[in-house]
From TrEMBL:
Domain VTT: residue ranges: 30-159
GO cellular component, one term: plasma membrane
Subcellular location: Cell membrane
InterPro entries in UniProt: DedA_domain, VTT_dom
Protein name: Alkaline phosphatase
Keyword set includes Transmembrane helix: yes
Transmembrane regions listed in the UniProt entry: 12-31, 52-71, 111-133, 140-160, 172-190
Keywords: Cell membrane, Membrane, Transmembrane, Transmembrane helix
Organism: Sphingobium herbicidovorans (strain ATCC 700291 / DSM 11019 / CCUG 56400 / KCTC 2939 / LMG 18315 / NBRC 16415 / MH) (Sphingomonas herbicidovorans)
Membrane topology field: Multi-pass membrane protein
Length: 199
C-alpha cells in the first residue's frame, strides 16, 4: 500500500494528497496517517511546502466527510423511524435511542464532530449522523475542517521529523486497523446477542 500511495503523491502532488484524503474518507481503506506522513517526508525533502500540504489534506478530508454528511442529510431523521421500527433489532436500536442521539447532536453536535476527528474508524462514521440529525452545513464543515487541520498537522510534522523511517508505520497501521475492525465486529455481535428492547 505504501508504494501505491507514494506513486499517487509523487505523480499528483497536492492534487494527489487531496484525492487520497477524499478517497480515505469516502472509502477508508487507506490510513490518513500514511498519506499525511508521506506528505511530511516530501516537505522534509523540499519537494512540497507544509502550508500547501496541510491545505490539500484538510480540504480532502472535509470534502470526503461532507459526502457522508450529505448522505445522512438526504436520508433525513424522520425517514429513519420506519427503518428503526423494522430493522432496529439488527442495529440494536430503539426509536428512543435515535431521539436521544438527535438531542445530543442538537446540544453538542459541533463538539462531537470535532472530537471524533481524532478517533480511528469513527472519524468518518460521525459524518452520517451529523447529516441525519440536521447539524448545520456551516457548523459541520467548520468543525470538521478545524479538527482535520489539527490532526493533519500532527501527522505531517511526524513525517517531517521522522523522515524515511515514517514509511515503517505501514507495518503497524495495517494490523492496528485490522484489530480495530475485528474488535468492532466482536463488540457488535456481543451487543446483538445480549440486546433486549426496553419497549
Amino acid at each position: 500500500m505504501t508504494d501505491w500511495v507514494l506513486h499517487l503523491i509523487d505523480a499528483g502532488g497536492y492534487w494527489g494528497i487531496f484525492a487520497l484524503m477524499v478517497i480515505e474518507n469516502v472509502f477508508p481503506p487507506i490510513p490518513s496517517e500514511l498519506i499525511m506522513g508521506i506528505g511530511g517526508i516530501r516537505v522534509g525533502q523540499g519537494r512540497m511546502a507544509m502550508e500547501w500540504l496541510l491545505l490539500a489534506g484538510t480540504l480532502g478530508t472535509t470534502v470526503g466527510n461532507y459526502f457522508w454528511y450529505l448522505v445522512g442529510h438526504v436520508l433525513g431523521f424522520h425517514r429513519l423511524k420506519p427503518l428503526v421500527d423494522r430493522y432496529g433489532r439488527w442495529a440494536t436500536l430503539e426509536w428512543r435511542d435515535v431521539e436521544a442521539l438527535d438531542h445530543l447532536f442538537g446540544k453538542y453536535g459541533q463538539i462531537v464532530v470535532f472530537v471524533f476527528r481524532f478517533l480511528p474508524a469513527f472519524r468518518t462514521m460521525i459524518s452520517l449522523p451529523a447529516g441525519l440529525f440536521r447539524m448545520g452545513h456551516f457548523k459541520f464543515l467548520a468543525w470538521t475542517a478545524g479538527g482535520a487541520l489539527i490532526w493533519n498537522i500532527i501527522l505531517a510534522y511526524a513525517g517531517f521529523l521522522l523522515g524515511q523511517n515514517f514509511r515503517d508505520i505501514d507495518k503497524y497501521v495495517g494490523p492496528v486497523a485490522t484489530a480495530c475492525v475485528v474488535g468492532a465486529i466482536a463488540l457488535y455481535l456481543w451487543r446483538l446477542a445480549t440486546w433486549k428492547p426496553r419497549g
